[in-house]
Write a structure and sequence with these properties.
By secondary structure, the protein is α/β, with parallel strands linked by helices. 30% of the residues lie in helices and 24% in strands. Helix 7 links the parallel strand 10 and strand 11. The structure holds flavin-adenine dinucleotide (FAD).
């Protein structure tokens, strides 16, 4: 059953929520990334062609062989190829899955506001995970990125299965939507930092908050990751982009072009955001190191442009991105009161 919250202010809603501890049953555990080792093998062969080494090497098992190959390439003056081979080696040998979505159900409803997180305890280890589904849905969902060597995330990726019981505590968190407003909403995330923003985006469209007094506002999502399949919920966001003219999904993939023919954005999310700002509204320039990004043409294929005077920003992800992004949008003149940001560490 869909339950649409009627509070004008999401912060007021939080004040009404009881803190609960619930035992929850896992209903689904799915890998979100894919095994791309055969693609890596083809990419390495492509990389080695200029050095004439493509038929000489069969480096696909031992990481040391890859390191030796990269060193040899660098010594022979193929520094770029050596770097790409090292990148592809990391991709080839990384644990799988790196990204897992987990759905669970509780006997009692866990009411939350889009953007909040819960304490999720499995095998007596509690960690914070953002709820990625809309509060209007019955199911609860999180998405977890494996932190190699971490205590809980590898166990969630490798061991957790449907039918098991976990303990949920919460909801917590103040990263929530502002009041329904006439502004465009700009969501910016890296990796699983998109989880709370996905909850907000789903909620925005389900409750018509993308429309203000009959006028559609633009809803943007800049989402950064290394590889395409490191983008959580990429299928859902691409579908939303396809079906809603006012939703603009901008994946920013730093490494993907080493592996495939990716021709979209490849820079950090905050730089990509600058490329999508309407240059005519920043006539005085930024007088910052980021000035040059305003002149660059985006490769996203999106014609819409951002106007800092009419946007509010929500950011979540690694601290370095979040701090960098806040500096960038403040330099564009977006007041602090219109920026909600949270770092995952
Ligand atoms: C409010 C909040 C919401 C969060 N939401 C999510 C979410 O939706 N999805 C998600 O995957 N994670 C999320 N996290 C991070 C999550 O709580 C855990 O920190 C993460 O899963 C690592 O736990 P672990 O037990 O595997 O690693 P730990 O055993 O806790 O840490 C092992 C080592 O890895 C480092 N480390 C911890 N976290 C990270 C990280 N994210 N990246 C790189 N190194 C790290 C630690 O400093 C430590 O050195 C959130 C954190 C906060 C504070």
């Amino acid at each position: 059953m869909v339950h649409v919250r009627e509070h004008a202010s999401q912060h007021d809603s939080i004040a009404d929520l009881p803190l609960v501890t619930e035992s929850a049953r896992i209903t689904d555990v799915d890998a979100m990334d894919v095994d791309r080792r055969s693609e890596v093998e083809s990419a390495v062969t492509r990389q080695l062609k200029p050095a004439g080494l493509e038929s000489t090497y069969d480096p696909f098992n031992d990481p040391q062989t890859w390191d030796d190959l990269a060193s040899e390439l660098a010594a022979d003056g193929y520094a770029d190829v050596a770097r790409n081979v090292t990148t592809l080696s990391k991709r080839y040998h990384r644990p799988k899955p790196m990204l897992t979505r987990v759905r669970f159900e509780t006997d009692e409803d866990v009411d939350f506001v889009a953007g909040q997180y819960v304490g999720f305890q499995y095998s007596a280890i509690p960690r914070a995970y953002s709820l990625s589904g809309s509060p209007t849905q019955d199911d609860l969902e999180i998405c977890v990125r494996r932190v190699p060597g971490g205590r809980l995330s590898p166990r969630i990726c490798d061991d957790l299965s449907p039918g098991e019981t976990v303990t949920i505590r919460g909801p917590y968190g103040e990263l929530v939507l502002g009041d329904h407003s006439p502004r465009d909403k700009v969501f910016v995330a890296t990796g699983t930092g998109v989880a709370p923003l996905k909850s907000m985006i789903d909620y925005v469209f389900e409750t018509g908050r993308d429309v203000y007094r009959g006028k559609k506002r633009d809803i943007w999502l800049f989402l950064g990751a290394d590889w395409d399949d490191d983008l959580p919920y990429r299928t859902e966001f691409r579908e939303l982009d396809r079906t809603h003219e006012n939703f603009h999904f901008v994946p920013c993939l730093v490494l993907e072009s080493v592996l495939s023919e990716w021709d979209g954005e490849t820079e950090f999310v905050q730089h990509s955001l600058l490329k999508h700002v309407d240059p005519s509204v920043v006539t005085a320039g930024l007088n910052t190191p980021w000035e040059g990004w305003l002149q660059k043409q985006p490769r996203s294929g999106i014609d819409a442009r951002l106007d800092p005077a009419t946007m509010e920003v929500y950011a979540c992800g690694i601290n370095a991105m979040v701090y960098g992004l806040v500096r960038v949008v403040e330099s564009l003149g977006v007041p602090a009161s219109r920026i909600e940001a949270e770092g995952f560490g």
